[in-house]
Design brief:
- The structure is a homodimer.
- Chain A contains 3 helices and 6 strands; from the N terminus they run βααββββαβ.
- Chain A is α+β, with helices and mostly antiparallel strands.
- Chain A has one domain: S-adenosylmethionine decarboxylase (4-Layer Sandwich), CATH 3.60.90.
- In chain A, strands 2-3-4-5-1-6 form a 6-stranded antiparallel β-sheet, covered by helices on one side.
- In chain A, a hairpin with a 5-residue loop joins strand 2 and strand 3.
- In chain A, helix 2 runs antiparallel to helix 3.
């Protein structure tokens, strides 16, 4: 498998604000959405696990060969916290990010990227 | 449920270096370890999903009422990338972090904490 040159993995933390609250409260919809987002990114899906909470909210994870996608929602605030962890530069997380933003009708969204495993000797500058 | 005052969730990204490589390659061990770590943190477990990779490595997630714990391992480098996402100040992620470090025999480990959902109006300074 192809690897990153500067880290073992990239961990993308994405914030989706001003989403459609009904969608954020629909765990079945979110499970389909995240499986489809993983396909859009070119990831290989190994399994997924979603839960609906009472009175509102949902959590879920898709485990992929390249690592994972997760979501936790607060429908009462129109907000979803998402992360994508990938160990493969061939996984297009930006496509998944844009796909999710569109499907949740998010009017305001952003992400940051954290490099993981960077203290290993192979990533230290000589 | 009690909530944080400055964010909807706390996302802890933990790096475990110089671990026992045999343990990092044992998905069954890791699944038991992470379920136990969730209990140590006082979290409520909803389910877990772990996979062993070929030739080496493992990935897994424990979904908890408070959000999730995940791990991705690189036994060949003695490294594990872990994250804890929690929406509850009552979940003791530091205890889980220390428990995992000890059980993986990690000689070098660190974590950072990211606040999530902080652009919501209730977290803006007046």
């Amino acid at each position: 498998m192809e690897t990153f040159k500067d880290a073992l993995g990239k961990h993308i933390l994405a914030e989706f604000y001003e989403c459609d609250s009904h969608l954020l409260n629909d765990a079945l919809f979110l499970e389909k959405l995240f499986n489809q987002a993983a396909r859009v990114a070119g990831a290989t899906i190994l399994g997924s696990h979603f839960h609906a909470f009472s009175p509102v909210g949902a959590s879920g994870v898709v485990i992929i060969m390249e690592s994972h996608f997760s979501i936790h929602t607060w429908p009462e605030y129109g907000y979803a916290a998402v992360d994508f962890f990938t160990c493969s530069p061939l996984m297009h997380y930006q496509k998944a990010y844009e796909y999710i933003a569109k499907k949740l009708h998010s009017q305001n969204h952003t992400f940051t990227t954290q490099n993981r495993g960077t203290a290993l000797p192979q990533f230290q500058k000589k």
